[in-house]
Amino acid sequence: VQLQASGGGLVQAGGSLRLSCAASRSIFSIFSINVMGWYRQAPGKERELVANITYDGSTNYATSVKGRFTMSRDNAKNTVYLQMNSLKPEDTAVYYCNRALGVPWAWGQGTLVTVSS
Q1: Which residue blocks in the chain are alpha helix, DSSP H?
Q2: In 8-114, which ranges are continuous DSSP H helix?
Q3: CB–CB of 95/7 below 8 Å?
Q4: What is the CA radius of gyration of the chain?
Q5: Contact 87, 98 (CB under 8 A)
Q6: 5, 109 in Cβ contact below 8 A?
Q7: Alpha-carbon separation of residue 72 from 17, 19, 44, 81, 113 (angstroms)
Q8: Smallest Cα–Cα separation from 70: which of 86, 56, 81?
Q9: Contact assessment for residue 4 and residue 21, using Cβ atoms and an 8 Å cutoff
Q10: In angstroms, how far is the first alpha carbon of the chain from the final one?
Q11: 3-state secondary structure of 39
């Protein structure tokens, strides 16, 4: 299993980024039925779940990102997205996707988001 996140970068506070995470062919057949999540891990902190989405598009968000982040998915492309607006320095972290229920698949390398003040 491979989950390849991309789209990170350096952005000023108040800016926006759109992350993507594509699943490998080995899980194409089960990707669409899994609740998927975006996680992040800031330096010196534990990994946390910031958003999740059901197979049919219902979403939930951590309080810290609610109203600023929007998660979506394209099951035909086996990809999930995270639109991040009004970014804050405290959003700086490595962002990963994985399933949000059950034992996580192997973690990918993630994509680094750095928000400067």
Answers
A1: 28-31
A2: 28-31
A3: no
A4: 13
A5: no
A6: yes
A7: 14, 10, 28, 5, 18
A8: 81
A9: yes
A10: 36
A11: strand
Give the number of C-alpha atoms closer than 13 A to the C-alpha of residue 97, restricted to the C-beta side. 28
pLDDT in tens, the chain (117 residues): 789 999 999 999 999 999 999 998 888 778 888 999 999 999 999 999 999 999 999 999 999 999 999 999 999 999 999 999 999 999 999 999 999 999 999 999 999 999 999
Which among 50, 55, 102, 103 is positioned nearest to 75, based on CA atoms?
A: 55
Measuring CA to CA, which residue among 100, 104, 3 is closest to residue 49?
100
**Structural tokens at position 37:** 């999540």
Q: What amino acid occupies position 27?
A: I
CA distances from residue 86 to 43, 62, 64, 72 in whole angstroms, order as listed? 21, 15, 12, 18
User: What whole-number distance in Å separates Cα of residue 83 and Cα of residue 72?
Assistant: 8
- Compute CA 115 distance to the chain's CA centroid, rounded to the nearest angstrom: 16
